[in-house]
Each structure stands twice: as structure tokens, then as C-alpha cells.
């Protein structure tokens, strides 16, 4: 499945009939099983329906960091992002990718 960023935003947990998706480096993960984390009111709800690559790399929950952009990230931050990507791969199914 290929989603535009606008389509991805519909899977942010506000519609209980839809799954919750989070993208990392353009790959979309179905994180519905982690609804308590990514659903409304959860500690990572700001990532739902978005590509959260930059925020995960920077270990940030700031809105301006919730972005697919990897520009200017340090080697250490890229390593942190890779760790997150591996954790997501182990825990959640990949359901598609985000189109630019």
C-alpha cells in the first residue's frame, strides 16, 4: 500500500474504526497493537498518522521534529533512528510506504 502524507494522517487514532499508523524512513507500520502509546492521549500520540523519523532520531516529542527529514542529523542520531526502526520491525507489521 502506498500512502501520501495526507492519507497517512487519517490513521492517527482519532477514528476508532481505522488502524493507527506511524512511518519511519517512509515505511508505514501498523502500531494499532500499541494503541495505549500511539492512540489519543498516549505518550507518543503526536507520532500517529505521521512519519516520525526525525523526532525518533532526536528522541524528541516536539511538533517541529515530527518530520520525515533526516537533514543535519548526527551519526549518533541516525544510529538512534536505526534502533527505533529495528524495534518497530520486531513489534509491528509493515503495511506500506509513504509517497513523497
From TrEMBL:
* Cited Gene3D superfamilies: Cytochrome b5-like heme/steroid binding domain
- Where the record annotates domain Cytochrome b5 heme-binding, the positions are 3-99
Q: Does the keyword Transit peptide apply?
A: no
Q: Does the keyword Cytoplasm feature in the UniProt annotation?
A: no
Q: Which GO terms describe its molecular function?
A: steroid binding
Q: Which keywords does this chain's UniProt record carry?
A: Lipid-binding, Steroid-binding
Q: Which SUPFAM superfamilies match?
A: Cytochrome b5-like heme/steroid binding domain (SSF55856)
Organism classification, top ranks?
Eukaryota, Viridiplantae, Streptophyta, Embryophyta, Tracheophyta
Xref: InterPro entries: Cyt_B5-like_heme/steroid-bd, Cyt_B5-like_heme/steroid_sf, MAPR/NEUFC/NENF-like
Q: What is the recorded name of this protein?
A: Probable steroid-binding protein 3
Question: Origin organism of this chain?
Answer: Arachis duranensis (Wild peanut)
Task: Specify the domain of life of the species encoding this protein.
Answer: Eukaryota
Report one GO cellular component: membrane
**Which Pfam families does the protein's record reference?**
Cyt-b5
Q: Which family does it belong to?
A: Belongs to the cytochrome b5 family. MAPR subfamily.
Gene behind this chain? LOC107470602
Amino acid at each position: 500500500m502506498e500512502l501520501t502524507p495526507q492519507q497517512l494522517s487519517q490513521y492517527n487514532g482519532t477514528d476508532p474504526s481505522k488502524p493507527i499508523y506511524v512511518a519511519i524512513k517512509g515505511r508505514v507500520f501498523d502500531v494499532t497493537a500499541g494503541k495505549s502509546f500511539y492512540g489519543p492521549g498516549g505518550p507518543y500520540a503526536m507520532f500517529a498518522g505521521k512519519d516520525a523519523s526525525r523526532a525518533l532520531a532526536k528522541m524528541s516529542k516536539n511538533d517541529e521534529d515530527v518530520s520525515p527529514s533526516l537533514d543535519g542529523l548526527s551519526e549518533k542520531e541516525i544510529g538512534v533512528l536505526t534502533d527505533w526502526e529495528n524495534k518497530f520491525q520486531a513489534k509491528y507489521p509493515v503495511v506500506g510506504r509513504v509517497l513523497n
